[in-house]
Amino acid sequence: MRKIIVLLCCTVICHHHSNAQKKNFDYSFYGFVRGDLYYNSRDNIEAVDGLFYLFPKDKLSDANGKDLNGNPDGSFYTFTTRLGLNIKGPAIGAAKTSANIESDFGGTTDINFMLRLRQAYIKLDWQKGSSLLLGQAWHPLFGEVMPNILNLSTGAPFQPFSRSPQIKYQYAKKDITLTTSAIYQLIYTSVGPAGKSEKYLKDGILPELYAGADYKKGNFLIGAGVDMISLKPRLETVWEDRIYRVNERVTSFSYDFHAKYTGEKLQLSGKTVLASNQTHNAMIGGFGVTKIDDRTGEQEYTPFRHSTSWLNLVYGRKYQGGLFAGYTKNLGTSKSLISADQLYGSGLNMDQFANLSFSLRYVLAHVNIGVGYTLATAWYGETDLSNGKSVHTHTVSNHRFESIFMYLF
After folding, report:
1. Peptide bond into 157 cis (omega under 30)
2. How far, in Å, CA of 4 to CA of 6, rounded?
3. Closest CA to 198 of 280, 299, 253
């Protein structure tokens, strides 16, 4: 009798599972188990508990003149282990349909790490070259040209880095692909008077807009794009003990050019960006106050502009050697600022930032092991209110050693 009951339960469960599985769908899992071991010679601006490395912090002297940010640190983590699911489904008219869901354990709270959403989108592909993506995916400034390096940051703050909710349309004809996107914010957000928040873009109504073109021929790819973002830093202000509704906005444009060569053993890629207020893309930048209305306290703003470039060379297949070089220069603002205390962004008191990384990897289809060294040097200074540039600079350097292992499936 007991065997009959067990058999019936198994039959019901299997029948339920087969009914729940929709027809004409194809599912494939992918991902990896990843571990990161690292050491830094000083404190840094970073994310994901140090795995997402950006740049060294400025010196901060105590009462004896010792640097409070000169503390070495290091750790070993595996929470960037990733799992993804690719889905192919039945067509809608002439359009092929697909979807992607991707996650890892890099989401953080004040006390623990948790599962986070990386990507979640649906895609429609038409045979004549058009495609439409709806959902959270890589920001178009990240694009198809990105560094191949050990660190989780994938080249940030030189390389734009974020995954964002978006509506992206692409048209491909022979060797040319045109891209337009309307982009919103969720996890990677802008910096403003209230800290990091998607509220500035949401209150501004307009999504971030991007348009770009790529040309791919044989082993070569070149492309360019333009990005516009318009934020509302505040909706109200308290001025002389009274509350006023205000209409504030800061709008900025960014431009990128990128290129890549992929050979049998050699990979050579690079990107240069004239970036303006791209803090949501993990880049150095932001904006500042230029004027305050003496009756209501309403403020006017100007964005900072930064020229940032990187070059990445990787040689080898099973055994790979890598070189990454990045450089950022603060080009200042188009208008004068009223105070260094009313700046909103990241690294705004930095004149220049340079990064040089070397790596060695052992690469198989299912295993990736690597070691690397990074020298990062930042030139910190004082903000010249007349143009937003940094003056009277001093250098701060960090030496970073890291090692990764990945088991891919």
Report:
1. yes
2. 6
3. 280
Task: State pLDDT tens for residues 190-209.
Answer: 999 999 999 999 999 999 99
> What pTM, to 2 d.p., does this model score?
0.91
Residue 2, pLDDT above cutoff 50: no
When computed from its CA atoms, the radius of gyration of the chain, rounded to whole angstroms, is: 24
What integer pLDDT is reported at residue 113 of this predicted model? Answer: 65
Phi first, then psi, for residue 198 (nearest 5°) are -80, -5
Cα–Cα distances in Å, from 406 out to 38, 46, 323, 370? 15, 22, 20, 9
SS3 18: helix
CA distances to 43, 48, 49, 107 from 110, in Å? 19, 12, 11, 11
Residue entry with tokens 């003496």: 294
* Portion of the chain with pLDDT greater than 70, in percent: 93
Question: Residue 157 CB: number of other CB atoms within 10 A?
Answer: 28
Q: Other CB atoms closer than 10 Å to residue 355's CB: what's the count?
A: 25
Write the single-letter amino acid at 332. G
